[in-house]
Design brief:
Length: 780
DNA sequence: GCGAGCAGCGTACCT
DNA sequence: ACAGGTACGCTGCTCGCG
């Protein structure tokens, strides 16, 4: 007796656990019973502790466990009901230290059973279920949906404005539900809004997972507000809404809600993707390289009212494309979030709403349990504030040698911080404060880490790194477009995310395993190894022109590539196990620019030309959102021409662009400067141009909120720059105002290009008066 | 009264 | 709700000059 299937979701009601299992015969609910527990540390006063909880707890167990690195006697106290846990803890928490009292019941259940969501198990038993993992792939069927709303006042108001269209898309079906007649084969006409939403609920019942794009904050709360329910869950269970400072969250019981916008935000947070805006259109294009039709959503209600046949059909098509784009993006990101769920033990719903620090913490908690270690407490707010106040010394950045360089090799340490942690057993509880260990690693800043046992964090990292190597090897057996390859690729990505976030986690104020000393030791070792690399490279006869955190840029001079590889081998042979220096690449040329203020070259700003002719631009205006397109484009072109030695062409490019700006031949969009509004408008002490532009949006009746992107153009006229900054995005309020050529030439174009040209001896005046000066001179 | 110089604010980027 | 290192534009103040 038993069933085999994929653990899709889990929830609990009191002490009853509900497992949603996808079997070959659809999703089934399997129930179990589970009693929550926590730990108390008696510190010798066991009898007192026992007396206090006797009769109040369901079960009391004395056991040995590792507490903050030391073996101790702990008391495991189980209770009948989740709600009773805090009551029992209250009896003793003043006198005894208590631990692990704030774990979610379902997560604790899964930890104890050794299971995670999104894996396939054979499940046996009635009361105390037994799980056996099965190596099998069960495919997930997902449905994307999206709503269009009536919006005569700009933003739709769910109290008045109906949902006018519902679109959906999956692998096998797609369509639009609406309550006005539209002539298109993918549109289904229904009586009213209610019918459309109810039909969506019916359709959802055929799927395992729901995709939305910002469904957490828009689609689902909107529908809920309008009719008080949305029954997308298993057997039409109502969706659950939760509000917090980070917005709304919409959980669909038994049918994981994957809000693709949350997935994309996570990827942005870990630096996996970076784009200007995270609208569905922009993400669809940036991630999948596909375009979709765009309609003016502000005018959407007019289209609905006018009922013109072609416009209505276009609106329906737009709506459908939103669902298709959401579906395709969902399919693209799902494997990664499934792997993150498997790695962390979070449900898929939680995995797509997780932060990098939570990934690390979840993995540590699971591993701690395996090692019979009691998990440290979460810090209270006071402690968090104390931790935030104390900052530590970070990485080393070498000031670059300014100018144009030839034949550069870039060397970097593979996963520097994780490898330092593993190689030196860096862990909050191997840290030897009293200096009593015989065998230890000593960091350059004088912290000691005992060698007698492997710390939890280095052990976890070693595991992540070795598993990743194994997965990468396994990947080679499969074709790139196979399902197996995609899964393995997602798995190695999830392992990489967890490993890379570990150092940051140790220095994260809210971390359970926070350790300033560990973080300080890691960065100290980091600085030590990069400086060592610089020294050794110089000793070997290379000129080191730049270094940042884990890399060094070395000039070959009269040496050959072979010499670089020999140096690499020699250096690696002296490195501890698990640490490795890699060749990032060879570059034909590179340029480092002189700093605006003071002397010397700017750090973190340079361009490299690869051997295949590709240009890599780092830190310069070209990669910044808060510079106009016109300045960025010309900077890119000038960089390429300078790196290719085409100096005259570079000068000509600048002169020609100045000419075009003067003549007004540049499209308006290229003047836009995008800057994020980071705080509430009232909080600003210094009113910059983007704040001025935002204020103008507000005055014109548009919504302003922190986090929004403001695109503005500096126009002609008097006063300072802010006085002349008018919004262009999200709404163009320029009216008849035109961009100020002086500003765009002197404050945008020239600063972006003169610093590059200055490195090859060209001064600003050469651009003004050289060449075609007859036509240009008078403008300066 | 005015311009130069500069500190502080604010944002975005690199690793 | 990852942190530290960095550059740099804009605003608004101070200071010296006349």
């Amino acid at each position: 007796m038993g069933i085999t299937g994929l653990l899709l979701d889990i929830e609990h009601d009191g002490n009853e656990i509900k497992l949603y299992v996808k079997t070959s015969d659809g999703v089934k609910i399997v129930k179990d019973r589970y009693f929550p527990y926590f730990y108390a540390i008696p510190n010798g006063k066991e009898n007192e502790l026992m007396k206090k909880v006797k009769g109040k707890a369901k079960d009391i167990e004395k056991m040995e466990a590792v507490v903050d690195g030391d073996k101790k006697t702990v008391i495991k106290i189980a209770v009948e009901e989740p709600s009773k846990l805090s009551k029992v803890r209250d009896l003793i928490k003043e006198e005894f230290e208590t631990r692990e009292y704030d774990f979610s019941l379902t997560e604790r259940y899964m930890i104890d059973k050794g299971i995670t969501p999104m894996r396939v198990y054979e499940i046996k038993g009635e009361k105390d279920l037994k799980f056996k993992e099965i190596d099998k792939i069960i495919k997930i069927d997902a449905l994307a949906f999206d709503i269009e709303t009536y919006n005569p006042k700009g933003m739709p108001n769910p109290k008045e404005d109906p949902v006018i269209m519902v679109s959906y898309a999956s692998k096998k079906e797609k369509g639009v539900l609406t309550w006005k007649k539209i002539n298109a084969d993918f549109v289904e006409y229904l009586e009213n809004e209610e019918e459309c939403l109810s039909k969506l609920e019916d359709i959802s019942q055929r799927y395992d997972v729901i995709y939305t794009y910002n469904g957490d904050n828009f689609d689902i709360p909107y529908i809920k507000e309008r009719r008080g329910k949305l029954r997308l869950g298993f057997e039409k269970e109502n969706v659950k809404l939760r509000k917090s400072k980070q917005g709304h969250f919409a959980e669909i019981p038994g049918r994981p809600h994957v809000d693709v916008f949350r997935c994309v935000s996570f990827l942005e947070g870990i630096g996996a993707i970076r784009i200007l805006r995270y609208t569905l259109e922009d993400v669809y294009k940036a991630v999948l390289g596909k375009e979709k039709i765009d309609v003016n959503t502000r005018e959407l209600w007019k289209t609905w009212d006018n009922e013109k046949e072609d416009q209505m059909a276009e609106l329906a098509m737009y709506s459908l494309q939103d669902s298709i784009a959401t579906y395709e993006l969902g399919e693209y990101v799902l494997p990664l979030f499934i792997e993150l769920a498997k790695l962390t033990g979070k449900t898929l719903y939680h995995a797509v709403r997780i932060s990098a620090s939570h990934v690390v913490e979840s993995v540590l908690i699971r591993e701690a349990h395996k090692r019979k270690e009691i998990v440290p407490k979460k810090p209270n707010e006071e402690e968090v504030m104390r931790r935030i106040r104390q900052t530590i010394k970070g990485a080393y950045v070498k000031e670059p040698v300014p100018g144009l360089h030839e034949n550069i090799a870039v060397l970097d340490f593979r996963s520097l911080y994780p490898s330092i942690i593993i190689a030196h057993n860096v862990d909050p509880f191997t840290l030897d404060k009293e200096k009593k260990c015989k065998d230890y690693y000593e960091s350059p800043n004088g912290y000691r880490f005992c060698k007698d046992r492997i710390g939890l964090i280095p052990a976890v990292l070693k595991n992540l790194v070795t598993m990743r190597a194994k997965v990468k090897k396994e990947m080679k057996k499969y074709k790139r477009d196979s399902l197996e390859y995609k899964i393995l690729n997602a798995r190695q990505q999830s392992l990489k995310i967890a490993a890379n976030a570990t150092y940051g986690y140790l220095n994260f104020a809210r971390a359970r395993w926070y350790s300033k000393e560990c973080a300080e030791a890691i960065t100290a070792w980091g600085r030590y190894y990069v400086r060592k690399l610089i020294d050794e490279a110089e000793k070997a006869g290379f000129e080191v022109i730049y270094a940042d955190t884990d890399s060094a840029f070395i000039k070959l001079g009269n040496k050959k590539k072979k010499d670089t590889l020999d140096f690499l081998d020699k250096f690696n042979s002296k490195l501890p196990e698990f640490m490795e220096l890699e060749l990032e690449g060879f570059y034909k040329r590179g340029i480092f620019v002189t700093r605006k203020m003071g002397r010397g070259a700017a750090k973190k700003r340079y361009a490299l030309l690869s051997e295949t002719g590709e240009m890599k631009i780092t830190g310069l205006e070209f990669v910044r959102t808060d510079w106009s397109e016109i300045a960025k484009e010309v900077q890119r072109d000038v960089l390429r021409l300078v790196l290719e030695g085409k100096v005259e062409e570079a000068k000509e490019k600048v002169r020609k662009t100045i000419d075009m700006i003067r003549k007004g031949e540049i499209p308006l969009e290229k003047y836009v400067i995008y800057t994020q509004l980071k705080q509430n408008i009232a909080q600003y002490e210094a009113i910059g141009p983007h704040v001025r532009a935002a204020k103008r949006l507000l005055e014109a009746g548009h919504a302003i909120f922190p986090g929004m992107l403001i695109g503005y153009i500096v126009t002609k006229g008097g006063g300072n720059i802010g006085d002349r900054s008018y919004p262009f995005y999200p709404v163009n309020l320029l009216g008849s105002r035109r961009p100020d050529p002086d500003y765009y030439i002197n404050n945008q174009l020239l600063p972006a290009v003169t610093k590059i040209l200055a490195e090859i001896g060209i001064k600003k005046d050469d651009l003004k008066f050289g060449g075609k000066q007859s036509k240009l001179g008078k403008w300066f």
